[in-house]
Amino acid sequence: xxxxxxxxxxxxDEEVILKLFERVARKERWTYAPARNGVEAxxxxxxxxxxxxxxxxxxxxxxGFQVLEFIKATKPSVEVVIVTGMGSVEQAVxxxxxxxxxxxxxxxxxxxxxxxxxxxxxxxxxxxRKIHELxxxxxxxxxxxxxxxxxxxxxxxxxxxxSIKGSAASVLIEGESGTGKEMVAKAIHRTSKRxxxxxxxxxxxxxxxxxxxxxxxxxxxxxxxxAIADKRGLFEEANGGxxxxxxIGEVSPAFQxxxxxxxxxxxxxxxxxxxxxxxxxxxxxxxxxxxxxxxxEGAFREDLYYRLHxxxxxxxxxxxxxxxxxxxxxxxxxxxxxxxxxxxxEISVDAMQALQSYPWVGxxxxxxxxxxxxxxxxGGDVIxxxxxxxxxxxxxxxxxxxxxxxxxRFPYKEAKLRALSLFNKSYLxxxxxxxxxxxxxxxxxxxxxxxxxxKIIRKYEIDIREFKKG
Length: 470
Ligand SMILES: Nc1ncnc2c1ncn2[C@@H]1O[C@H](COP(=O)(O)OP(=O)(O)OP(=O)(O)O)[C@@H](O)[C@H]1O
Ligand SMILES: [Mg+2]
Prior knowledge:
The protein has 4 domains: 5-136, Response regulator (Rossmann fold); 148-316, Rossmann fold (3-Layer(aba) Sandwich); 320-389, Orthogonal Bundle (Helicase, Ruva Protein, domain 3), CATH 1.10.8.60; 405-470, no CATH class. The strands form 6 sheets. Strands 2-1-3-4-5 form a 5-stranded parallel beta sheet, sandwiched between helices. Strands 9-12-15-8-16 form a 5-stranded parallel beta sheet. The radius of gyration is 28 Å and the shape is globular. By secondary structure, the protein is an alpha/beta fold. Helix 13 (325-340) packs across helix 15 and helix 17 (412-434) packs across helix 18. 47% of the residues lie in helices and 15% in strands. The structure holds adenosine-5'-triphosphate and magnesium ion (MG). The site of magnesium ion has 3 residues, from helix 7.
């Protein structure tokens, strides 16, 4: 992602104000961008580096306060100057408490003051960023709060969690199954001011719709068959703490409305009860589906999405951060060898290469399972390529693996799979070696059509460049 830097972002729904600041920016030679509402502002801030934001408190879609909170939670070094109406001192004070740099009152009587305020805000931003860069130049973190991984996207996740410590804003965690969404949710809770209060989890997809409502909001005696007594819901139990709504993409439109109400007003009713109750719960939601697509399909409410997505965390699939595989593999190796009382020392180079070229559809959870299985089955003290499951060997290809594979160690079915995959790899490897990496020549010799041949090469993750070198 390329990040452009913008000196000034103006968020206001009045054209005259936008024009006014455009003129100022041109005169001062500041790069400038306008946004007409909160959604546009947040969208711009997510995609760009901004030094200073001039933010109207009264905005359509999200209030200025919400945008301010978003900025302070996700990009605290961006300085915010709030614009209030005349005489709204209270709002100005509240904005300063939330971390705004300064405020200006409309109409602007003294333009010199406006310019100097913005100039000071930008100076402060540059200073803070400089300090931050110096700190970041240090060694990357190997992990954070028990989350392992040193890849760049994971560094960003750690920095984000760290930077939202002081916020209670909703978080939406998106990522494929097994990428660590629940781990991240726990880390966010543990580092927040709510750490001493409960962290409760509910899997929205695993509970039937009717029950889900009573689980979350509670019910009164006699509300439905089987409701033999009053019951508190998770929103009540988690009061002051965090509620993790897993697989949020699955809930029905009717239920989405009820969720929206708690998120907006902090209010809910127990099933079968008229009394409106209040709760103070921080919501972290997770999904392995693309909610933007669900919105387009009409299956997910856009307003709920924005309520949940005040802060967004995207966990990349493991295959996109292969450098995390070795530290994760050793982390799980240590965990399981200790649990099983085994003395496994290391993972061979070939085995690690195989692990790194496997696509890991089940992500970290699948890697964890593979390591557990290896630790259970292994007699020796080194995990070698031949000790890995056939499924991993079948989809990987490693030239340097010269280890003898004793197939009689495996049941017939698995032995056959392993033999087949070894044969396929070695056959393709020899053909490509002979043809100097020329796919047309190699596929011709194999009596296969070129596109099929290419498909198989891809399946075994063979890099034909290796054969072209000589
Ligand atoms: N970065 C990581 N470091 C250490 N362990 C991890 C990491 N990511 C995931 N795990 C482990 O992998 C397993 C799956 O993680 P988690 O349950 O958080 O994933 P998830 O994204 O919620 O998965 P699902 O979508 O299947 O619910 C857990 O046992 C967790 O401890
Ligand atoms: Mg999960």
